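Support reply, case 0932

Customer input (verbatim):
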Amino acid sequence: MPAPATGPASPPVNPRSRVLVASLMGTTIEFYDFYIYATAAVLVFPQLFFPSSDPTTALLSSFAVFGAAMVARPVGAVVFGHLGDRLGRKKTLVVSLLTMGIATFLIGVLPTYAQAGWLATALLVLMRLAQGFALGGEWSGAALVATENAPSGKRALYGTFPQLGAPLGFIIGNGLFLVMGALLPSAAGADPSQPSDAFVSWGWRVPFLFSAVMVAIGLWVRSRLVESAVFARTRETGGVRRLPLVTVVRSHGRQLVLGTFIMLATYVLFYLMTTFSLSYGRAAKDAAVPGLGYDYTTFVLMMIFGVLFFAAFTLASGPLADRYGRRTTLIWITAAIIVFGLVWAPLIGLGTLGVVLWLVLGFTLMGMTFGPMGALLPELFPTSVRYTGSGISYNVSSILGAAVAPFIAVALWEAGDGSPWLVGVYLSAMAVLTLIALLLGKETKDVSLDDREAASTDDATRPRAGSPAS
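Our regenerated output:
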């Protein structure tokens, strides 16, 4: 008896649990690597790699290198976007994670300025640029893995999982620094706001070396992914572009600009609440530029408490954006960020309770504005240029927002004679630009990723009036 006819075998798909874990795991590692640098940039790098008689100058130099990575991120977005849109999301994500892991590990074994002079500083800058280059390709790939594999009506929820890597990376990274600080306490009578000699000598290296373990786990998880059905169909139908960058600039320039400014307030708030706040919180009240005067352990614990709200509201933002729309949700959140920037100085002036409230509100808003970006930016672009387009918007915004935010914040902090009110005004001004971009943009909640690709292909191949084919 002949065997019954069967149709073509179904292509392999990614189980939902694997999609969520792969997108979450990778960004957690990437943000962990980024955060431990940010923490070290405040705690030890000014004295280890940027010797200066003026502590503020050394801190600004450390922040400048921190910002240099943001400049490398758009380059990474172009390179990894090209690979991701041509070769696939999986291979590109593996390469970006490996690049980030190697650069972070090497920071942990660098000589200091006292050992190698300016060569040590140059090597730190090089590794920092490599970190930024890798992160330029990480986020958009992780967001695409989540959203292109999401079930109908849940793209924003799935898109929050790569975003969740930011608070988790912060907690793991700073938690490990806290553990090292507890294991290597300052000597009796020493300034409790300063790290111990042992921590400065070698303790700070442990979080960087530990990243190798996390990267190995992340690579194993990502190696088990298969390409999304959306990208596989684009490749099968010949929709892959030879030069995705050229296509996205020519055909989707408006989306690039809007996406960049939609991310602006998120980036400024993100780095003010993480990098600047750590400097401001630890600076002595009687310093030349006075701060809050908390010791490192106390203030980081306060920050971690706030980051818990960051994590919770990142997840909460997904269902809201799926129900009410990405644009509508973000318009309200951005308006709240504008108000927050104007009132955060009075909040801090209320004492410890006010500082905790400042951190909680800031990180809550951070989660609410960051979460929907995992869906919104990819939805602005068709499949053939989605990796490139979302990555460029996300990472060019890092230059306008994150690269200069800590630097500008320190300058405004000094200009305000130790009061952060000008820093809050700066945040509000950047949020106004984001609000304008949102008002000029369109809702993407009901956009079909496949339909966008089909429309893009039709537009590209439709004969022009007057042509021989018309």
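We compared this against your earlier run and they match. Two observations from our side: The domain at 16-445 is CATH 1.20.1250.20 (Growth Hormone; Chain: A;). The mean pLDDT is 84. Please reopen the case if you see a mismatch on your end.
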